[in-house]
Design brief:
alpha+beta; globular; 186 residues; disordered C terminus; 10 strands; 3-stranded antiparallel β-sheet
């Protein structure tokens, strides 16, 4: 596994050579901002998925409002994105829009949705993220498929990153999707 120097390096590599794990289930590969809470009570997340077993490349932005409602913005039809697992029926608003993600620098990502969002994200590292990344590159890929290993990583990540509850596998809120994570590239 390659070790990348910056988040942009890892994202560019994922875009240039997207690899899906073998299997017959639905699979996705890409990168994203797993979630960023704001003091206002809003929460944003984004995914750029250059390869999927269910359709073409896509980008999606997830917005959680302080009133408890979710909005999923996608640049592909919802049935071709995994946001559909998190917004069954009328539980959330799903919008179709152009989404652009551009790396302005090695640690700087800009996500735009015309007339809706202009989001600049500055990424950094901490001693905990550097250590976890270094350790993740020394593990065989099969380790990431182990439920027992994922439970340990969940607990360690939650404590080291002060991230609250961390889930690397589980079931989506709709109950329609069980998910497992792969390894981290940076």
């Amino acid at each position: 596994m390659d070790i990348f120097n910056t988040p942009r390096d890892a994202a560019v590599a994922a875009q240039r050579n997207p690899v899906l794990w073998p299997g017959t289930d639905e699979r996705f590969t890409g990168y994203g901002v797993m979630g960023l809470p704001f003091r206002s009570g809003h929460y944003l997340a984004m995914r750029h998925i250059p390869a999927s077993s269910i359709g073409p490349e896509y980008r999606t932005v997830w917005h959680y409002a302080p009133d408890g409602t979710w909005t999923f913005i996608t640049d592909r039809r919802p049935e071709h994105t995994y946001a559909r697992y998190f917004a069954p029926g009328d539980s959330a608003l799903t919008l179709y829009a152009d989404i652009a993600s551009k790396w302005d620098g090695p640690h700087s990502l800009r996500v735009t949705v015309p007339d809706m969002l202009d989001w600049r994200i500055e990424l950094g590292s901490t001693p905990a993220t550097v250590m976890m990344t270094a350790l993740s590159h020394r593990l065989p890929p099969i380790a990431w498929r182990s439920n027992a290993f994922q439970r340990v990583v969940n607990a360690v990540a939650a404590a080291l990153l002060r991230a609250g509850r961390v889930g690397m596998s589980g079931t989506a809120s709709s109950g329609a999707l069980s998910f497992e994570s792969g390894s981290c590239d940076w």
